[in-house]
Amino acid sequence: MTMLVTGWVALDDIETPFGRTERSLGGSATPAALAGALFTDVRILAVVGEDFPDELRRKLEHPRIDTAGIKTIEGGKTSVWGARYSYDMNSRDTWYPELGVSIEHLPPVLPEWRDSTVACLAAGLPSYQRDLIASLDAPKVTLVDTIKMFIDENPDDLRETMRLADFVTLNESEAREFAKMPSIARAGRSLVSDGVKTVIIKLGEFGAALISDGEYFVAPGYPLEEVVDPTGAGDSFAGAFLGYLDSVNQVTPGEIRRAMIYGSTVASFQVEGFGPSRLLTLTREEVDARYRKFRELTHFEVDG
Amino acid sequence: MTMLVTGWVALDDIETPFGRTERSLGGSATPAALAGALFTDVRILAVVGEDFPDELRRKLEHPRIDTAGIKTIEGGKTSVWGARYSYDMNSRDTWYPELGVSIEHLPPVLPEWRDSTVACLAAGLPSYQRDLIASLDAPKVTLVDTIKMFIDENPDDLRETMRLADFVTLNESEAREFAKMPSIARAGRSLVSDGVKTVIIKLGEFGAALISDGEYFVAPGYPLEEVVDPTGAGDSFAGAFLGYLDSVNQVTPGEIRRAMIYGSTVASFQVEGFGPSRLLTLTREEVDARYRKFRELTHFEVDG
């Protein structure tokens, strides 16, 4: 059982009320891979420029992560993502991408990686995500994430990709914008009637909702005392969600719900540090303890 | 078992993307009372002006609501609340109160109502809320709600009242403002360490969180397809929460969690119509069906 992760391995400039980082390890694939590695073996497929520091590359060296798919483009520049958050960290104030080598140089899947059992396609070019799904032998589960940029640029192209995936993750504002619906429930249902198999709408600190033809599941947010940096929360959710599903090796409604809670749990750790720093030291034991706590915090019986 | 409800019985001017109403039945006590009457007998204590239409008074006539405590002030004007909501109905764009008779004329509890078993003090002058709690014989449970106006005007006075109540409800932005804390969890804990017994932070469409010294419970929002008007959601939550607790006649952690879900469930009906219009026809059977649905939508088992 192995999870293929694609997306950006990038440099992040982040500023929150609690501090700032410059050129730190970031991107969409990075937190997804680190989150997934808590549950299963992970392979990362991404491109970086010559300027990508060895020191950051070493941070990705993890017993369960194969980085052979991180290709360095000679003469190229690594993508940089800048984000600034104000006091209410649910929304970004400013956001600027310098896409670097990541858009022109799309790494094909390594031949020996075609047997990956699940694929987590963090934000990336929709046509590339489509090609990648097609190039795998027989993935059990695929998940596609995206960002506003691709919704704005070519929604029809994105829609085509979304229909191919088993799970699509969108954050709340993206879902409302993409579906042109004000309510989360209606946005979700509209995407499903448009051919998306299952959509997961990420609600930031308020949790996540999963909507498919026959299923609706809502999970509240884990109550965090302190959010240091929300960057990458959604990617770590996706990586943990899919990594957990890969590890249990079956996709039942019960397992999908548990995967949602594992995703939320790992995301709640991710936001405790700048970028993916918290994930670098996080253990499965810590995750399981908070997962059980999550249940305690949310459980109720219908009757007394 | 009888629930005393105080607060505004008022006239609402509401404008949402879906329509508008003028001088419709509103106020804080109105949805709280109608919500509570789904579970227990209710007594309303409020003042209105001479201009309060008989037609609206008749809407409050309900087999389980005693309106003998709604006093008409001769020559006075009924309070009017105006609210306008934009596309994202989580926040009000504009909001104006014309307080009418409700601030100078505070109705003392009717002597025969001192035996009320629970008291739901919807938004009102904090010193009046305090006097009212003191004037009851032996209420089993008291709940105090408030609004930004009272937090801004005299936070110390409000704090004194909050410490007297068994439950304090605040919406998210009020809790952050009052506690001067950015995170919901920290704002809640800060209020508790400041002497509030249990605080319920209302998260609008994202549910509610309950925080006390030994308990933390988070409930997601019920996934609604269409929100017509969010006015009064918090008041209907409070009325249903307390009405349910009154009806089961015990205040255990399990019953408090069920009360949170009943509160959220009734609030999810409240927002389906303008003002409290949906509550006027709502039945306990409809509430129980959605309550069970709520469980289905949120339940997960820790292990497979």
Write a brief caption for the model.
Two copies of one chain form a homodimer. Chain A has 304 residues and is an alpha/beta fold. Chain A is 35% helix and 26% strand.
Helix fraction of chain A, binned, reads 25-40%
Which term fits the overall shape of chain A? globular
Q: What does the oligomeric state look like here?
A: homodimer
Q: Uncertain regions of chain A: pLDDT < 50 for 5+ in a row?
A: none
Secondary-structure element order of chain A, N to C: EEEHEHEEEEHEHHEHHEEEHHH
For the record, give the distance between the C-alpha atoms at the N and C termini of chain A, rounded to a whole number: 42 Å
Q: Roughly what fraction of the amino acids of chain A lie in strands? A: 25-35%
User: Got a strand count of chain A?
Assistant: 13
Structural Rg of chain A: 18 Å
- Class from helix and strand fractions of chain A: alpha/beta
Strand order of the largest sheet of chain A: 5-4-1-8-9-10-11-12-13
Estimate the mean pLDDT confidence of chain A. Answer: 93
Summarize the biggest pleated sheet of chain A: 9 strands, mixed
Description:
The structure is a homodimer of 304-residue chains. Chain A is an alpha/beta fold and 304 residues long. Helix content of chain A is 35%, strand content 26%. Chain A is built from 10 helices and 13 strands. Chain A has helices at 29-36, 54-59, 126-135, 148-153, 155-164, 172-179, 184-193, 233-248, 253-270, 284-298; strands at 2-6, 10-16, 19-26, 41-49, 65-73, 80-85, 92-98, 118-121, 141-145, 167-171, 198-202, 208-212, 216-219. In chain A, strands 5-4-1-8-9-10-11-12-13 form a 9-stranded mixed sheet, sandwiched between helices. In chain A, a hairpin with a 5-residue loop joins strand 11 and strand 12. In chain A, helix 3 (126-135) runs parallel beside helix 5, helix 8 (233-248) runs antiparallel to helix 9 and helix 9 (253-270) packs across helix 10. Chain A is globular and about 65 Å long. Chains A and B meet through helix 7, strand 13, helix 9 and helix 10 of A and helix 7, strand 13, helix 9 and helix 10 of B.
